[in-house]
Amino acid sequence: SFDLGNVDALSTTSTTRTIDVTPLANQQVTVQQVRAASDFLSTRLLPSRENDKTQRIEVTLDTSHFVNSRRFDGNVIITTNSEQRPTVVVRVYGEYVAPATAVPDAVIIASDETGDVQRELVVFTSQPSRIQSVTAPTSDIRARFDPDASAVMEHRIALAVASQDKDVNAQVHIDLKLYPNGAESVVRTLSVPVHRFSRIRGGKNGN
């Protein structure tokens, strides 16, 4: 197994590590092919060095596949010319630390709720931050927050979703300016899905 440790998404969008494959002294084993079995991983077999039996495999984690903080666990499959062990599976795992996470991570409003519905989002950030803006592609969703708040690591946003006769399926976009210790400020956008189901479903006759 291969532990990538904590991957801070605020400082990088990808991280690369190298796996060394060294055969036993009395074996002539060669890596013929390497591939990633997980969509968030990619691999590359590096050129061999002269008089060096060790072969090196470059493994890259693409953090664009992740939104919220989570543990990731994937596999790299190595194919060799060994008759005893032609395939080797290397587990690659670690912890993705998102720059911002919303709780809840989605707002879902059932059809039995009437009138304008209020919901609260709590946004946690990995570094002190300020909310720059909260926007939605529809006027049916309104947001309130304190634009003058100090840089903190927890924010509260009040959402109001208007009552209407059709479903609402939209994304609320939260622009955050984060202030990493000793580094320049960084702007990141956190998107939260909002779904409201109307009472009228299945056509005009309700079928």
Q: Ranges with pLDDT <50 over ≥5 residues? A: 203-207
The major pleated sheet works out as: 7 strands, mixed
Please estimate the helix content: under 10%
Radius of gyration: 24 Å
What integer is the average pLDDT? 89
Distance between the termini: 54 Å
Task: Describe this entry's structure for a reader.
This protein is mainly β and 207 residues long. The protein is 0% helix and 57% strand. The chain is built from no helices and 14 strands. Strands 8, 9, 10, 11, 12, 13 and 14 form a seven-stranded mixed β-sheet that branches. Strand 13 (168-178) and strand 14 form a beta hairpin. Residues 203-207 have low confidence and may be disordered.
